Fold this sequence. Notes:
alpha+beta, 5 helices, elongated
Amino acid sequence: MRVSENSGGRRPADPAAVTVDLVIFTIRGDELRVLLVERGNAPYRGRLALPGGYVRPGEGLDEAARRELAEETGLDGRLHLEQLRAYGDPDRDPRGRVVTVAYLAFGPDLPVPVAGSDARAARWEAVEPLVSGTTPLAFDHADILRDALERARARLEYTTVAAAFCAEPFTVADLRKVYEVVWGAPLDPSNFRRKVTRAEGFLEPTGGRRVPEAGRPAALYRRGPAKALSPPLLRSGDQVSR
């Protein structure tokens, strides 16, 4: 094969499309759920999938992720959103070579979403049947979801992002429920309270209290300025590590 002089001695690259996919987690009914859409077009028509779409010419990846978040789900940009990783296996999309950049988002008790124009429906689904393979997803979205779940679990260990799942103001018990739901294990209440209230910049007291139907009033907090947890809250069986 003769190579063009302008190619620098390299073969021309095969064209590839770029998409973004969104893994949006929330907690509803004490259960970790992810936002899925029912595909309205081929391939995988009728199959559940992560919301997402093609990156437009001249559009940045973060910009595309925000746009798809609004267009496919009707959710606004108040969510914590971070880039997860890229997925580029040659056979991941039957339409041709498509590289996707996945994004991870968290939000507190998010509302019922509105499906976009290329989706039949959008709804919150329990995460466990999806990562276990009980409920199949389109493309390689089950792999993306598993990676996102592990990232979320790790992020709770080393950062203050767990508070993004809580509507302010919240109690320590509300925050502990987030850890228990995402990690999938119960935590010792006293040990957890001691660690999170002593973590610098994690929580800020509001001065208010929530009066339960039974029991003692619980102190209310808002998210503090810290982004990282030092020391981290490490997963260890059914306890927060000492």
